[in-house]
Amino acid sequence: MSTTFGKGHHLHLIDGSAFIFRAYHALPPLTRKSDGLPIGAVSGFCNMLQRYVETNTGPDAPTHVAVIFDKGSHTFRNDMYDQYKANREAMPEDLRPQIPLTRQATIAFNIACEEKEGFEADDIIATLAVQARTAGGRCTIISSDKDLMQLVGDGVEMLDAMKNKRIDRDGVFEKFGVYPDRVVDVQALAGDSVDNVPGAPGIGIKTAALLINEYGDLDALLERAGEIKQPKRRETLINHADQIRLSRRLVLLDENTPLDFTLDDLEVREPDADLLMPFLAEMEFRTLTKRIADQLGVTPPAIEDTPATAPDAPEVADIPFDKSGYSKVSTGAELQEWIDRIYERGYVAVDTETTGLNEMTADLVGISLCVEAGQACYIPLIHKAYRGDDLFGSDDLAEGQMPLNDALEMLKPMLEDPSILKIGQNMKYDAKIFAQVGIHVAPIDDTMLMSYAMHGGLHNHGMDALSDRYLGHTPIPIKPLLGSGKSAITFDKVPLEDAVPYAAEDADITLRLWQKFKPMLHRTQVTRVYETLERPLVPVLAQMERTGIKVDRDTLSRMSNAFSQSMAGLEDEIYEMVGRKFNVGSPKQLGEILFDEMGIEGGKKGKTGAYATGADVLEDLATEHELPRRILDWRQLSKLKSTYTDALQEHINPDTGRVHTSYSITGASTGRLASNSPNLQNIPIRTEEGRRIREAFVAEDGKTLVALDYSQIELRILAHIADIEALKQAFRDGQDIHAMTASEMFDVPMENMTPDIRRRAKAINFGVIYGISGFGLARNLRIPRSEAQGFIDRYFERFPGIRTYMDDTKAFAKEHGYVQTLFGRRIHTPNIAAKGPHAGFAARAAINAPIQGTAADVIRRAMVRMPDAIADLPAKMLLQVHDELLFEVEQGAEGALIKAARDVMEGAADPVVKLDVTLNVDAGQGPNWAVAH
DNA sequence: ACGCTCACG
DNA sequence: GACGTACGTGAGCGTA
Questions:
Q1: Closest residue by C-alpha to C1' distance, nucleotide C11
Q2: Alpha carbon distance A188, A199 (integer Å)
Q3: A564 touches strand C (CB under 7 A)
Q4: Does residue A770 lie within 7 Å of nucleic acid chain C, judged by its CB?
Q5: Residue A635 Cβ under 7 A from any strand B atom
Q6: Preceding peptide of A59 cis, ω within 30°
Q7: What is the pLDDT of residue A389?
Q8: What DSSP character marks residue A596?
Q9: Which CATH architecture has domain A323-538?
Q10: pTM of this prediction?
Q11: Superfamily (CATH H level) for A10-266
Q12: Which end of chain A is less packed: N or C, by CB atoms within 10 Å?
């Protein structure tokens, strides 16, 4: 057994990461039956190991073997070049928890399992391969990674296990055009976009090999670069010589990795049933356990057949909610213990406590963490000392708290570590709070967004609702801690003995929800929706919100004054007409004046017993009376003043001079965003007076606002989904879509089109999107219901696809309880089977949702791609208004921005959905939003 | 707390 | 046969 590795020995080195990723991508997202733990990659990994063991017997069998893994995300290459592997996509989060299990699997198979902090697996492989060669033995590297090809030769070979193809010196030459000893030179020139090795711009493997073969090696080439005939190539090599040398250092493997084991430790060992069987059984791999048990001649252990829990049924939490598992972290040593536990796990649930709900002005008060259900901590940072009878509290800090900066310094590397998943409930909030203190949290998972992807339309997605529904636990309410109304306090005034259980429980709940939702995402088939439309939007929106938009206070203030004066004038006229003063803003008083005192006919009372005085009612009365018109004018000014010119001023952040809205990702069931505090998605535009409010939304000096909006996106999507050839053709031809509809419906040639006929067609087009009804159209067009119904019948006759779409959609909703967008987003329609008027609402919502929702998905996709697309431009994305994106860009770069952003927006459906219509984007620019739109 | 009204897509 | 209806939002105000 204890012979020294040497001649006649044969070492196999298995590239563990390659096995893992192959296994992950080759298999569907399997989960462990008993608890939903994702184990697809582990299963594939074990099968690959098993096949490896089976096939490597006989005369050429290895005498030594090890599986080599990467460890840690930071290696010496990052110290050389901080952009190394910076383009790497984050590891899929259902793979992350499986990584430690693949180590365990290797050990269970009784195969040596090696890794070293700060080094890549490739370096360990290089070191061992060279040791084996030096000792006079052979080595086979089981991998197809081209970075390892520099090691081939003199007894070192590679084996592509999938293709079962050996790669020797000639194989390397085939791939690189040079033999192994010059591979690094070629790689240094060609660079590598996957690992983000820069190389020489414009030079690929072919050209690189050509140059190296001509000049012998890289140093000679760089030295004699001046001799190169092609001017461009010559320039590139001379100008980028340093970058090329850096690239070579990055791709050159370290053959002297310090290892705390020797080749002899890797000697092949017999499979050990006592080691392997328990592991396979724990993973609940029934088939594999049985097969290997047969081969080893042992009895397979029993695997309990735990029934899977019903997909959406709330289940009693296995671990009770118990405050004894919650602790306070007061010292660096205690915090370090938590950080160590987090690194062991690879994920952590995080929650922040702050002094308020507005992330732009709130201060971080404390942080809670949870790595295992029932065990959580709270790190209080700036809680104030509590003095019993002191109503005003104290400015002194409470005892037993770490200094804020010390805690943040310790937490920052973990929160920013790409290998640690940070789980939150509404992570946009916490990410913005952390961003305030210079911490950029990534990668993240968000239980609120998971719930939204799975259950949009069924219920809201706040933590209290989710905890009640999915954990059967009502969280500690915040109200008693903070109080309410005038005497309400901020969280930093909450005594620590109350703050710890409250805050720790939030992290605990978040972790439990995540554990519960993770496997549910796959089962409900909305993983792609979550991964592409929800999760990546968080950092994008956080950035937009933090950027904000400049709003000119003076402009608003002047408008407010002007509105006040006009309103006062109108009030005088109104009081004159009525004969006395009253509250013009009170619909109740107004209704009584109009319909009782003045005796105007046709007053209708609603269900609350008050007369309806809405704009449509007053509009009708205005033909006969003067008062309603004055009221309408007054109301318009009142609305503009109170909701916009006054309120917006209150929202200007004193530090930034800008207005920072907050987008709600889960607010609208269709997938649209909602904007609040303030709502910047309903800034006036339809009337001239209102539109002028947009003049107060301005670009900074030296910059321009650029607005891009999708033209008729919902009608285009309708044309595609309902497959209306005439509509699709009209969009292809760039026709006026409403005029075309009018022409079709009313048999009017396009050249004879009148504005009124077109207006009617436009109303019908929109009506269709909303789930048209004769009543609704009649009211909108102010025509008799029978006439409206006639229009609809005619529309269906001319475009029969519409009726089919509506009927099919309703039937789908009834059968499944939800409808879907083209990108797979589900919108639940729980009332679709209801009786009475509810049913009508639900049916129309079901018809509208796939159209509105698909448009929402499209712009979400554009927004997710936008930061990369405009990264090189001096531009920032500021706002989203459903079909419009607003940017601020340095003067001079407007054209470049419009080109880049338009490309992203127009191509946003690709490659997942191939639309039969093009998406067209209109652009505008100017010093303020009124001009830009 | 709730309904009415009205701003937007 | 009558009922009551365009889809999706958020904010301010009056009224209870």
A1: A643
A2: 5
A3: no
A4: yes
A5: yes
A6: no
A7: 52
A8: I
A9: 2-Layer Sandwich (3.30)
A10: 0.71
A11: 5'-nuclease (3.40.50.1010)
A12: N
* C-alpha span between A265 and A916 (Å, rounded): 62
CA distance to A143, A415, A661, A900, A904, per residue, from A547 (Å): 46, 22, 10, 20, 21
- The answer to whether some atom of strand B lies closer than 7 Å to the beta carbon of A884 is yes
**C-alpha dihedral sign at A773, A779, A784, A788:** negative
Sequence spans of domains, chain A: 10-266, 323-538
**Residue A196 contacts residue A244 (beta carbons within 8 Å):** no
pLDDT tens digit sequence for A822-839? 999 999 999 898 887 788
Per-residue model confidence as pLDDT tens digits over A761-778: 999 999 999 998 899 999
Residues of chain A predicted below pLDDT 70: 1-2, 89, 305-318, 387-394
Amino acid A324 CA to nucleotide B8 C1' distance, rounded Å: 50
| pLDDT computed for residue A391 by the predictor | 55
Can you give the pLDDT at residue A392? 58
pLDDT given for residue A524 in this prediction:
82
Report if CB A738 to strand C is under 7 Å.
no
Report CA(A721)–C1'(C2) in Å, whole number.
Answer: 35
> What distance lies between CA A291 and its chain's CA centroid?
41
Residue closest to B3 C1′ by Cα = A608
Q: Does at least one atom of strand B sit less than 7 Å from the CB of A684?
A: yes
* pLDDT of res. A2: 53
Q: What nucleotide is nearest A848 when CA is compared to C1'?
A: C7
User: Which nucleotides in chain B lie less than 7 Å from some protein C-beta?
Assistant: 3-9
First and final C-alpha spacing in chain A:
80
Amino acid identity, position A692: R
The nucleotides of chain C lying under 7 Å from a protein CB are 3-16
Give the pLDDT confidence score for residue A316 in this predicted structure.
40
Residue A669 Cβ < 7 Å to strand C: yes
Residue A313 has a pLDDT of 40
CA of A736 to C1' of C4 (A): 34
- Residue A604 contacts strand C, CB under 7 A: no
